[in-house]
Structures are given as structure tokens and as C-alpha cells.
Amino acid sequence: MPRSQIEFYYGNVMADAIGPKHGITARQLQALAKRTSPLIAKLNEERRAGNTPYRDLPYSKETPQRVKKVVAELKDKCENFVVLGIGGSALGIIALQTALKPYMHNIYEKKRTGPRFFVFDNVDPSQFASFLHWIGNKLGKTVFNVISRGGQTAETISQFMIIRRLLSRRFGARSLRKHVVVTTCFNHNPLHRIATNAALPCLEIPAGVGGRFSVLTPVGLFSAAMCGIDIDSLLAGARDMDKKVSRKNFYKNPAAINAAINYHFYNRGKKISVMMPYSYALKDLADWYRQLWAESLGKAKNLKGRLVHIGPTPVRALGVTDQHSQVQLYREGPNDKLFTFLQVNSFDKDPKIGAAPRCAPEMAFLAGNNLSTLLNNEKKATEYALLQDRRPCLTVLFDKVDEYTVGQFIYLYEVTTSFAGALFKINPYNQPAVELGKQATFALKGKQGDYKPGYTYQEWAKEICSRTKIDKNFRV
Amino acid sequence: MPRSQIEFYYGNVMADAIGPKHGITARQLQALAKRTSPLIAKLNEERRAGNTPYRDLPYSKETPQRVKKVVAELKDKCENFVVLGIGGSALGIIALQTALKPYMHNIYEKKRTGPRFFVFDNVDPSQFASFLHWIGNKLGKTVFNVISRGGQTAETISQFMIIRRLLSRRFGARSLRKHVVVTTCFNHNPLHRIATNAALPCLEIPAGVGGRFSVLTPVGLFSAAMCGIDIDSLLAGARDMDKKVSRKNFYKNPAAINAAINYHFYNRGKKISVMMPYSYALKDLADWYRQLWAESLGKAKNLKGRLVHIGPTPVRALGVTDQHSQVQLYREGPNDKLFTFLQVNSFDKDPKIGAAPRCAPEMAFLAGNNLSTLLNNEKKATEYALLQDRRPCLTVLFDKVDEYTVGQFIYLYEVTTSFAGALFKINPYNQPAVELGKQATFALKGKQGDYKPGYTYQEWAKEICSRTKIDKNFRV
After folding, report:
1. B304 and B210, same domain (yes or no)
2. Do A329 and B335 touch (CB under 8 A)?
3. Cα angle B331-B335-B338, degrees, rounded to a multiple of 5
């Protein structure tokens, strides 16, 4: 049986659909093909040279085996599964759960398959306190997955130190190994050392894979497998897409063409990229994409001695919900956005709309329809309205939402990001600008260090406080 | 005892903080004061003339009384409270809950105060089916609040027709009045007629108040009161802010100065407005703001015969979470954003970070700190990093998050929107561009009507399908 697929559709960014002022003409598409085609060979070459190790993740045999082994050891005793992680150690994990588990998963009692599932990707005191309040007498059947690539993420370690104290006091220090799984790089970073010393189960993040490209490492796979998601199918979907995004023919390569179209519109003033799934399940994949796109492509580069700031701003939206929130702006506001819809052809469940009472004949037309018909008609209607205002629209079509198509989608967008980086001529794999904020946090918290030339850490902390203090003169 | 307050701080948008190229100079601020001051008198006059009825909502005595009466009748039998509504009939409701109820509210069993709380603001088949699956044997203790201003919102009526059939089959048609509360305009719209005919409890949305300005009508107040939120305090906070936003002195009026600053930056190429709460509780107020700002200010206007497209794009972010997702772009990407941080001085609960083990001395600096210290230091650190790159930053300071400060915030941003509309010279209260998509949905669903001159509804539906069909030529 052929497996479910995703497809990339770009007819409605073309000049035929929205006119030559905003749309891509046949000639422009040829120019994009010419510019992008050499990059296909280049990316394939880089991949062969081992420079983009994220490309090989779907082929690992050991990783899913190792992950399943840890799952098998813990699964039976686990009623609550809690991820402590942030950024690339959270967004892919959340996206998989929202896509592949029922909406009411955590609320279900008897109907629940797999443990309750939580991700804490913040250090909000009220939020975390509410969780601690709840977990109190349930700690015994709870597993925490502490995830940090570099092993010294202040937020994640802080949460871990709270949980560690709690578990140690309740069950003794040796209990930790039954309740905590650590996912990190195996490079003797602080978290790795803690895990080794306390003999905690440990899963490795390959060194060359950045956080936002790590969902197909144990970062994403372990929590997925713990909750009953079929990780083999997820990886198979990614491998399927790998074939497509390696194709030398630009017109047959969905990552190349997607990146080229995004690049084209950015250069023509459409600096905002809206991803709008018409599926609640796909909502958090748009959030995962938001990090992937922003952190990879938001870069300053030196162009003939001038600093140039590059980077489309990704925006997540949700159909139909945001029709009643954002579409007024999307249609009448500045034509500065490229839209990517995610559309699902077939849903696992599909409630039928009941009859309207006789006193409301205006609503009778809804009766007997399934919700999916309404949802997908609204996607068409919204796209039509945007096209009337000459706004460019892409669509990624999902046969259905399952592990296989989600795996395809993840891999498609990761490789699209690599192509976009090559087109913008920036390095999509680093994030130099995140460092300053981290260091400033360290200095403010009194961590010794040489942060700023000519300043002690205390002097620098003082400067930061003075720059950000609330000055009476500008306070209302 | 003085009540908790919010304050608006704009020191870090000034040229002194980020330089004269990107910051506001003293002279520019004076020019903004000169341009905006007459609008203060104008808005105060419009309000007295009754043209902006949302301004009077916090003063109603009848509304909270009526709301509390319905709450008193239903509260004891209600274990699950479900809102069916979308856009302005959902976002304010969600924002109040996230702000004022514990994070784990729906998961709590014994510790829960008030009913479980759900909002369905979509017609996603899988999501709604998951809910129906769960609610099955709990329907008897469930109250639905069906909210639609115009009473014919296709999404909300569709959900209601599913629920109506379910309740009727289970408990008989007369049971509806025990399980459904309708909130709508009392103008004999379809929903109002259904409610009247079935003798359902009904709450009125004042005719002149648009959806996105309706959170302080029964739209927002009823669900809040059902869940134990102090609506009197919410309204008192709004009244408190009303005094401030009516002040004639531009420099003392937080709504006027906020709107003027936003207007200034939009006109200087900063077309994206990022609202970034450093508080999980305030997360969905940023989403509420997103509709308020986009739908009110995203407008096309005729300028000397030319159509001009106006409208900042609001983006919601979350501190510290999005530091690990968006800050790379915010610092190194184009300087096209104005940032508004929401900062909370005091949290109700504040877990303390435990000690790090001896093998990880790098993390010892965290021990003994409360999470709130870390959170607010990270806000400072991120703001400092953005200022280094000359990005303008506003802050709204909350003494703490409670009904009173949330009421202030809501009212501040509603009136800020009115000021911004006046500065942009557009009507912030309509949403003409939403209509086309609604009509296209109707036509696609076979609802008869005269939608497009010269077309039958079937012909128009055919055109919409042809414009949005997936053409083989552009499919990868």
C-alpha cells in the first residue's frame, strides 16, 4: 500500500494567479532555477562530506534502538512524563505531541494511551509552582527528561536542580536514576557530568547537530517513543523526503523550489513569512518552523565593509481561528507577507454537523456537513480572498497527519532552510547573537567571568542594570 | 491599601538609549505630542457623544449583576465549562483564564477551584472529536457558553448544532436550558432566535461594541465569573486606567503616548510590533492584543485616489522561551521591529533553585535563587542585548498579575488602539476585508445568495474552486 504523502504546491505565487507586480513570472522562475540549481549539487556535496550531519539522522539504526531500550525500561512505571528543555530542546518535541496525540490526551483518564505529557520550556515561577503543586504526590510515577545540548542552559539546569532536590528528599539520592533521563552531548559538559556521576540513563545528541535541527535525534525521538508515537515511521517519512530534496532537477525538488520562492519574495519586500496550518494538530509544527527559520536565517553579514541585516520574520497563524483575528490585516494591510498554508485532506475523526432548528433557516445550509468539509472550504475561501488582493500563497498538502507525513514535513523544512541559507549567503547553522543575552544573564546572577573587555563582571552587571532600569522620566 | 498597578515605560525607545538613527529624539517626541494632543480631546469628545461605547463598559452596574445571577444558577452543577466562540468571542476569554487561573487548572483534580475550562475556537475535526470522545459521559455536569455577536458565525453555529443534537438525544430537547448559555446581540439574529425559542439563558452583547473590544461585556465576564475570577476587580482596574487614558496631558496619558510611539516607528519602517511577556500568565493577553491590533489597524485607505495599505503586523512572543527561538533574528535581522515587553515585579509563588552537585561547579551560581530573579534578570539581559543593536524597547510593568492589573492592561490597549486609529486616520472599529472570505465559505457550502454581481452562487463557488485548486503543473 502506498504510504501517505505531503506535496508542495506553488501555483498561487505565480503571476498568473496574482498578477506580474506581485507574482513570480515564468521568466523569474527560470532565473530562480538557474541560481538555485548549482546549490543543489553543492548541498548534496556538503552532505557527502559530512558537513551537515542532520541530513543523516533518519538513517541511524542505533539511535532508535537505544531510545526504545530506555523506553522499555521506564514505560511501565511512568504515568507522567515531563520534559525540561527550551528552544530546540522543546519545540520539536511539542510539535510531535500536538501532531500525533489526541487533543484531550492529558485530560483523558481511562481513555489515555501513554503517560500524561508536559514540557516546561520557561522559568516562569507561577507556572512551575503550579506544576510542582500538582505533581506532589505523583512523583513516584513520574519520569523527567532533562535536555540540554551544551549541558549548561541556565533555565533547564535551574528546573532540574529543583526537581533533583525534590526527588532526593522524597526517595533518596539514588532514586534519581529511576526518574531522570538526560539527553545531551557526550562531551563532559556539566549536565553530562551530573548524569554520569549519578548513573542516570543518558541519550546522546550528536555533536554536529544544532538544537533546531535536532528533533530527529533522541531529543525528539525519546519523548515521542515514550508517548507511543511510531518513531520508525517518522524516520521513514524523513528518508522518503530525503530522496525528493536531493533531486538535481530544481522543478522536482520541493526544498530547493520552496527556498527559492521564499528568497524571491523576501528580496521583493515581503519580509514576513506566515505559516498557517488548517489543522490544530499541525499548529505547533508552525511554531517549530518559527525557530528554524528565524534562528537560521536571521543573520548580519558583511557586504563590502557594510553590515547588512538579513532575515524573514516567521509568523505562526492558525486556520480557521485566525481568519477572525488576522485576515483583515493580511488582506488590507501592506502586501509584505508570503503565506504558507498547511492543508490536510483526510482526518481520522470527522464529526457531522446537526440540523438547525426551524426558527433559524439561515443556518440550515450547514446541516449534514462534516467539520472537515467546512474547514477545508474555509481554507479555499481565505486563499481566494487573499488572491483577490494579490497576496502570494503556498500550500503544503498532507494526505493525512501521521508519523510518516510529519517526518516528511520536518525534513522538507530543515533542508529548505539549508537552501535558503545558501541563497542568502549566510551560515544557517550558528546563532552568534544569542550569546550576549546569555552572558548578561550570567553576569547579573553573579557568575564570575571575563565577559566584556576592561570590565569586571560586577561592573558589567552594573552597566546592564543601569541601561535597563526604569527611569522615572519616561514612566507613565 | 493602594492597589497593584501597571506602568508604561518608554525610556528605551529614545535616542539617548539607542541612538538618533533609530531612537526618538526629544524634538520628535515634541512633534508627536503636538500631533497627538488634539486627538485626546477628540477621543474624549467622541466618548461623551456615545460613539465609542466600549469606553463605558467598566461602569455598567447591570452587566456584572446579570452575569453573576446566571453564574449562581449554574455554578453548582457545572464541572466542565466549555466556550464555543471564535475571534473576539474567544481570545479575551482565553487571555483572562491564562492570566488568572493556575497553569495546571484543568489537570488538577482535588485542588481545582471552579470547573474545568475549555474554549473551542476552531472547527478542526480531530480536535473537536477528541473533546466529544472525552465529554461523553460527563455531559450531565457540563455547561456550554455559545458566543456569537452576529449570531450566524458558521464555525460557532456548527459546533453548537453538534452539541445541541448530543444534549437533546441524551437528555431531551428541554434539557438544553440547563446546559447552554447564549451570549449574543439581542437583535433577533439566528442564534438569538434559537435561544429565545428554547428559553435558554441569554446574555446581551451591546450592539455598538465590536468583537475585539468586547472582553469587558458578558462575552468575557461570564466565563471569568463561572471560573471564579473576580470580575468586579477586573472592571475596577479598567476604570482606574480610564482616568489615565483620558488625561489631556500627552506625557501623562499612557494610551496616547503608546499609540504615538507605535505610529512613529511604523512610519519609520518598523512595521512589526512584537509583544513579549516575561510571564506565562500574560502569554494570551499578547494573543488578544494580536487581534486587537491587526484587525483594528490593518486597513486600506484612499489617499488622493491611491489605495494605501496600512497596518503594523503584531507578533506574540514569550520570554524567556523565545530567547531560544527568536532573539537571534531580533538582534541580527532587519531593524524592523518595535518590542513591547510585559514585566511582572512580584509572583504569587516563587520556587527556589536547589544546589548543584559538586561535579558541576559551573552551575553553582544558580543555587538559592528564586525563579523570578532568573526570569527578570533574563528580561534585563535580553533588553540590554537588543539595545546594543539599537532596537527600540517598550515595557509595561505589572506590580503583579491580578484582576485589577489585567483590567488596566486591557483598557490601556483598547484605548491605545483608538488613538492609533486616529493617528493613522483609519476606522479602527470595522473589518470590511473579513467579509469576502465568509461569503466565499457560504457559497462553497451551497448557501444561496447574491454574492458577486453577474454570478449565481453556484457559478461563484465554481470560480473559487478553480482559483484554489491544486494545479498539477505547480505541484512537487
Report:
1. no
2. no
3. 90
pLDDT at A1: 57
pLDDT digit string (tens) for B270-321?
Answer: 999 999 999 999 999 999 999 999 999 999 999 999 999 999 999 999 999 9
Please give, rounded to a whole number of angstroms, the shortest distance from the CA of B24 to a CA of chain A.
12
Q: Tell me if chain A has a CB within 8 Å of the CB of B318.
A: yes
Work out the pLDDT band at B43, boundaries 50, 70, 90. Answer: very high
Q: Which of B233, B251, B274 is the last residue of a domain?
A: B233
Task: Say whether both A252 and A224 belong to one domain.
Answer: no
Q: Are residues B181 and B299 in the same domain?
A: no
Residue B188 falls within a domain, yes or no? yes
Q: Indicate the residue of A91, A280, A467 with minimum beta-carbon distance to B126.
A: A280
Domain assignment of residue A1, yes or no: no
Residues B293 and B222 in one domain: no
What pLDDT sits at residue A137? 87
Mean pLDDT of B249-257: 98
Interface of A with B in 150-169 (CB under 8 A): 152, 154-155, 157-158, 161-162, 164-166
Integer Cα distance of B182 and B218 in angstroms? 10
User: Do the Cβ atoms of B326 and A291 come within 8 Å?
Assistant: yes
The CATH number that applies at residue B375 is: 3.40.50.10490
Question: How is the beta sheet containing B313-316 ordered, strand by strand?
Answer: B6-9, B393-400, B337-346, B272-277, B313-316
Q: Which of B402, B405, B410, B412 is nearest to B229 (CA)?
A: B402
**Domain stop point among B233, B266, B297:** B233
pLDDT at B1 over 60: no
Q: Could you list the residue range(s) of the whole structural domain that residue A343 is in?
A: 6-48+247-424
Pick from B325, B359, B379: CB nearest A291: B325
Q: CB-based contact (8 Å) between A242 and chain B?
A: no
Lookup: cell for B369: 535563587
Task: Answer yes or no: do B243 and B376 share one domain.
Answer: yes
Chain A residues close to B474, C-beta within 8 Å: 9-11, 14
Distance linking the first and last C-alpha atoms of chain A: 66
Task: Please list, residue by residue across B423-438, b when 16 or more beta carbons sit within 10 angstroms of its beta carbon and e when fewer do.
Answer: bbebebbebebbebbb
Q: Are residues A211 and A165 in the same domain?
A: yes
Give me the residues of chain A with pLDDT under 70, please: 1-2
Quickly tell me which residue has 535551574 as its cell. Answer: A158
Query: Structural domain tally of chain B?
Result: 3
Q: State whether A158 and A104 are in the same domain.
A: yes
> Is-contact B289 B413, C-beta < 8 A?
yes
pLDDT tens string B422-456: 999 999 999 999 999 999 999 999 999 999 999 99
Q: What is the pLDDT of residues A61-81, one digit of tens each?
A: 999 999 999 999 999 999 999
Q: Looking at the domain assignment, is residue A429 inside a domain?
A: no
B294 and B349 part of one domain: yes
Our CA angle for A304, A305, A306, nearest 5°, is 95
- Tell me whether residue A240 is in a domain: no
Predicted ipTM?
A: 0.97
* pLDDT at residue A111, as a whole number: 79
pTM, whole model, 2 decimals? 0.97
